[in-house]
Amino acid sequence: MEDKMSSKLKLYGFNNLTKSLSFNIYDVCYAKTEREQKDYISYIDEQYNSERLTKILCNVTEMIGAHVLNISHQDYEPQGASVTILLSEDQMYCARSESGEVFRREIVNKGDTTVAHLDKSHVTVHTYPEYHPDTSIATFRVDIDVATCGEITPLSTLDYLVGSFDSDIITMDYRVRGFTRAIDGSKLFMDHKITSIQEYINDATLRNYDAIDVNVYQSNIFHTKMLIKDLDLQNYLFKTDVYELPPKTRLDITQSLRQEMIEIFSGTNVF
What we know:
The protein is α+β, with helices and mostly antiparallel strands. It has helices at residues 2-6, 34-47, 50-63, 112-118, 158-163, 203-206, 247-266, and strands at residues 18-30, 67-75, 81-88, 92-96, 102-107, 122-131, 137-149, 169-177, 180-181, 187-188, 209-213, 221-228.
């Protein structure tokens, strides 16, 4: 298998492997009063509205060498947004909005390959801003799913997606499903080398996080969790200057933020 994957695979027919990358990104913020918490939610909701999310996902599409078939996007009340993009490997042309920016691409050649991709290749994002008035902590969660079939793999987009958001905690799952056939008829359940999702993340990015893996190699399932190492308090204060706070208050806030991050990272109410 290793020799087969060292060069381009010769397949019988279409590559039927489905590759899916799902991850959650969390941003944590300290907002003392309920008014500040609501203002933070409004701010983050505007920063990551459906228009900006659409641009991010269109960039992801270009990075993985796919093309946009269709875009659906929606902003919600009181907060949150969703974007879904259908992908294809076929050639497309670009349609531009009145402002000159690309939001949608129409298909040129409608072939069998495109039809085969319609229900399998897609990129979706959903946002979930939330807060609780008793904790002074507000969080912003982004759920992103990239599912592709054929030769396209979503792993090359990880650095870009992590950098597109304020990422304090990241949970990632990558799975390869199904099988395709080599030219001799033998089944291939994987068409690229991978031992960890971390292999596809830049070293400079990884140095900022504590990361752990939980992988099931025989099932082609890979799971990685990352927690930001250093906490610069000023970056987590909303409408407050860190130098306005006494040292004891700074320490208490830092501890509250770190506890919130640890609980999200572990998926358990630890404290």
